[in-house]
Amino acid sequence: MFQQISGFLSTIPFFSSVAFGIIAMVIVGSSWCLVGLVMGDAPKRGIEPSLVQMGGGIFSVLFSLMIMLVTSAYSTAPLKATFLICLTYFIGSAMNFVMLQLMSKAMQLGPNGVIWSIIQSALVFPFMGGIVFFNVEFTVLRGIGIALLLGALILFAFTKDNSKKTTGAKWKILAFTCMAIAAIQQNLATMPSYFEVSRGVPSIVRSLSAAGGTLFMAIVWNAVQMTQERWEQIKKNVRNLTLWKYIAILQLFGLVFAYTLLYPGMDVMAGKGLGGMCYPMMVGSCIISFTLSSIWILKEKVRAIQLAALAVCIGGLILICTKA
Predict the structure, then answer these.
(1) Cβ contact 56:251 at 8 Å
(2) Cβ contact 122:186 at 8 Å
(3) Calpha distance 284→302 (Å, rounded)
């Protein structure tokens, strides 16, 4: 049934157009700010961030399995290709889990808006990967865009800590470590869409693989750090309604958008030779939405250098997405 619906939608010109791909990337990217807000807020409420990811992984795996079985949305790609594609998403998602845990620690030490922007600026790397390996067109304006993004990172690095704690450079070290992990993860998440064979692997199967990577790493992460004190915290958190609210919020948007927008949109963009622009558009939307959230919701002070870095970052994103 799922494949029939997907097949029907693909016959409608809009759902195979660049416009659909761009709209999908913007919507998905804007929704990502919820992840940053939750991972920054959870520790403040006594919630272990890894449990939010573990709970989400369990829900995603079970729900995706159910949908896949009910709708018969199985992969039609060759077995070896299916395995490699799913493994890529699995590894990328596991890396993303680690990145989010480190990001949560950084956000307890420094300015959340700046940290989020630094990490998400890793978008420049999948774009460069598309240019080097998958024939994404390189132009002068896109080259300037890459330079601006790198310049924005330098400005973000000089942003002073506006948190209540005096933590020196620790939050910056964590933030740039997360950026390096995100750079690899984003390349892994983008890569399968460049290959025609990936069209035979439904979004649900890809989502299941990604959820499996998150769940696996969450279990390993907690098992390695398990102590009696941590076990007591886990039991206490499980009884806390706030944990389940976090999980519900993230999974609602994560699963719905993954099935309907994320992977279909990436496939469309990659099919048009624009795959390297997917993460720039998503992350650009995410940076803007999170910056606004950090000002209006988190009530963080905004410094001139941060605004300058944000403006340079947005300018770089716009130029990267140009075709001239």
Answers:
(1) yes
(2) yes
(3) 18
Closest alpha carbon to 114 in 53, 57, 163, 79: 163
How far is 245 from 52, CA to CA, in rounded Å? 9
260-316, pLDDT tens digit by residue? Answer: 788 788 888 877 777 767 767 787 778 778 777 777 777 777 777 777 877 887 788
Quick one: CA torsion of 209, 211, 212, 218, rounded to 10 degrees? 150
**Residue 144, SS3 per DSSP:** helix
- Report yes or no: 10 and 265 within 8 Å, Cβ to Cβ: no
The encoded tokens of residue 75 equal 């992969």
Burial of 104 (0-12, 13-18, 19+ CB in 10 A): buried
**Low-confidence spans in the chain with pLDDT less than 50:** 1-2, 162, 164, 166
Do residues 29 and 286 make contact, with C-beta atoms less than 8 angstroms apart?
yes
CA 245 to chain CA mean position, Å: 20
Would you mind telling me the total number of residues written for the chain in this entry? 324
Overall number of domains in the chain: 1
Q: Which domain holds residue 234?
A: 17-320
- The answer to whether residue 282 sits within a structural domain is yes
State residue 221's pLDDT score: 93
What pLDDT is attached to residue 7?
Answer: 56
Does any domain span residue 8?
no
Report pTM: 0.73
d(CA 153, CA 170) in angstroms, rounded, equals 16
Give CA–CA dist 75/35, Å, rounded.
Answer: 29
